[in-house]
Design a protein that fits this description.
Number of helices: 4
Order of helices and strands: HHHH
Largest sheet: none
Shape: globular
Number of strands: 0
Number of domains: 1
Distance between the termini: 13 Å
Structural class: mainly alpha
Oligomer: single chain
């Protein structure tokens, strides 16, 4: 799960509440492994530099892993895809 950045300028309280509910759900379930992290952690797990590459990927300035139709996805979908790939590297 892509976590809201600690110093985010986006005051989306609903997102923070939903993240908390999902974390509680995971913690009290039979799920054995899950991933929660911000951009730096996701970038690390994807083995991409922390120099803004994540943002370039999300904005469509670069294509991750030669995924066909990468720019057909919106920013949120791209973040989700990157987070999923990062989770595979647990």
């Amino acid at each position: 799960m892509r976590q809201t950045e600690a110093f985010s300028k986006n005051d989306n309280n609903d997102r923070v509440v939903i993240e908390g509910v999902i974390q509680e759900l995971f913690a009290s379930s039979s799920i054995e492994k899950y991933f929660i992290g911000g951009i730096v952690t996701i970038s690390s797990k994807l083995h991409i530099p922390h120099d803004g590459t994540f943002k370039e990927l999300v904005e469509g300035k670069a294509i991750y892993n030669d995924i066909e139709g990468w720019n057909d996805y919106n920013k949120e979908e791209k973040e989700s895809i990157l987070t999923c790939f990062a989770a595979f590297n647990l």
